[in-house]
Specification:
By secondary structure, the protein is α+β, with helices and mostly antiparallel strands. 27% of the residues lie in helices and 19% in strands. The protein has 6 helices and 10 strands.
Length: 261
């Protein structure tokens, strides 16, 4: 039986449940066999629930509570807990998602984005690097216009940069000025995150070195707030903190080979 495994729309072959030969219900061997099967299924289900609970607890360990509206990207949960939002907040988050997708039709490719003022320059890949890069094409004027969380004027467009393929628009990034808090119309769905940066005085911070340290003369601090909005098919992954590779694949925006379980 072919079943959809839910991974980038990939279909895999799964063996159907084995059929048992008809036997009289009075057979002791048959009754014992069915008892063991029922017990086995019950144990398996209980084990699955236990494993899921352990995995969930592990994924939440050291993280901020799901109702948190803002914080460092490494402390926030990857996905928002949509059930914590009120109906009005869910409606606001869905409206923001629709507006962003409608606005994005103006920038279907990097050429159109560049003509509109977005910086779509890509960096040279290191030899052998086959990973997906997520280009944040920044718009300098939109970054200084004091209009916040406006899909018509996002601070950056996000393009998936897959080796050997054209850039694909997969989302937007909204940003706030330093020390200013972003609006949260979707409550715990529309969360703002920050990244560790290395800054010299009041200058704009840069990413730390590969080992996480800052160059001499700079100090580590949290950068300004930002919010990612991804063009996936569900509200939960639309507002993921980091690129939701699996859901982007299911939405046809990433090749199946780059999809994650």
């Amino acid at each position: 039986m072919d079943v959809d495994c839910g991974v980038c729309g990939e279909t895999r072959r799964r063996r159907s449940w084995p059929q048992t030969r008809d036997e009289p219900f009075t057979s002791p061997d048959y009754r014992w066999c069915m008892y063991r099967r029922r017990v086995g299924v019950g144990v398996t289900i209980a084990s699955l629930f236990a494993c899921a609970s352990v995995a969930l607890a592990a994924s939440h360990a050291g993280r901020l509570p799901p109702e948190t509206l803002r914080g460092p990207e490494n402390l926030l949960l990857q996905y928002p807990t949509v059930s914590l939002a009120s109906p009005a907040q869910r409606a606001a988050a869905a409206r923001l998602s629709r507006d962003a997708r409608a606005a994005a039709r103006r920038w279907p490719n990097p050429r159109a984005a560049k003509a509109a003022g977005f910086d779509s320059h890509t960096v040279t890949r290191r030899s052998g690097d086959l990973s997906v890069h997520y280009l944040h094409a920044e718009h300098r004027r939109y970054s200084a216009d004091r209009l916040y969380l406006d899909p018509r004027r996002p601070e950056a467009l996000i393009y998936a940069n897959v080796p050997g393929r054209p850039l694909v628009l997969v989302g937007m990034m909204f940003a706030m000025p330093r020390e200013k808090l972003g609006p949260t119309p979707g409550g715990p769905i529309t969360r703002w995150h920050t990244h560790k940066v290395c800054a010299r005085g009041n200058r704009r911070g840069l990413a730390p070195r590969t080992d996480g340290s800052c160059p001499p003369g700079t100090k580590a601090r949290q950068g300004s707030e930002m919010l990612h909005l991804w063009f996936t098919n569900d509200l939960r992954s639309t507002f993921a903190i980091h690129a939701p590779a699996r859901e982007l694949g299911l939405s046809g925006l990433l090749p199946a080979a780059y999809c994650k379980l």
